[in-house]
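Schema walk-through. Below, the input block comes first and the output block second. Nothing else is stored per chain. Lengths vary across the set, and this one has 330 residues.
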Amino acid sequence: MLNYKKYTEQIFDIKTENEFIELCLTAFKYQYKNNEIYKQYCNFLKIKPEKVNNTSEIPFLPISFFKTHKIITKSKNFDIIFTSSSTTGSTPSSHYISDIEIYKKSFIKNFEYFYSSPNEYVILALLPSYLERSGSSLIYMLRDLINLSNNKESGFFLNQYQDLQDTILSLEKKSQKYILLGVSFALLDFAEEYKLNLNHGIVMETGGMKGRRKEITRYELHKILKTAFSCENIHSEYGMTELLSQAYSKKDGIFECPPQMRVLIRDPYDALSVKPNGKGALNIIDLANINSCCFIETSDLGSVFTNGNFEVSGRFDVSEIRGCNLMISE
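--- output ---
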């Protein structure tokens, strides 16, 4: 029996690898019993739950299931549905969120873990493609972080590049810390029009051209942005509709996970061959996903290093461009 309150407190305060493994096994047993789609998938693979004793033995659900099935634990209603962006003719993913408070707790604690309290920053969100549609988990997160910043200069910018420049110049004049977070194509558009010296700001890209511009490597993107904004490093956010946790990179596209999240490597030609580090396809454990599925087999390719940090190098299927995390790295 899962002690839900205790579990949702423990996952954000994991101190050791043994604690993480124990919570993974707790989540696996709970989801095998209560998530019918995940149970069917495990049974198809002939997995015996009583014989699963480590994270490497836990099956990872292909992320494509979020396009075709309702991934949610039984007897759970949902507060909201997050949907992925999609190109014409493609099927978006749907993530049924039965406890929105876990998502709020997750993204706030993740932000504090990497950057400290939101009220230390002005948060400027340049996310036109997300604002133009509904159901974005990124917009939901940024709206809350903007409110928590408690600063009237924080906010969303659609295509108001002049207003954004004026705000940045005002913040620089006051030596106020701020974060300019944007989808890649919008940051490039802004960088081409305005050259600024961002001495007190962090530039953070969420990846993805979303069909607006030609895909370029993350290295190329960061090089252009560093030159345009006269900053030493470009930060990155790694998140997706199917997850409730985010990883962040402060330099060179190398991402670090928060305590409740891990990234593993699987063999692209053998989905059941999973190891803690190396190169291949990315599997993600997100313990905040207790009401859907904590164990996700993604379509991303990349590397996981011995310290648990990771980078993304591309995707299996580039014909279907979607999501926050599509950015090819060199």
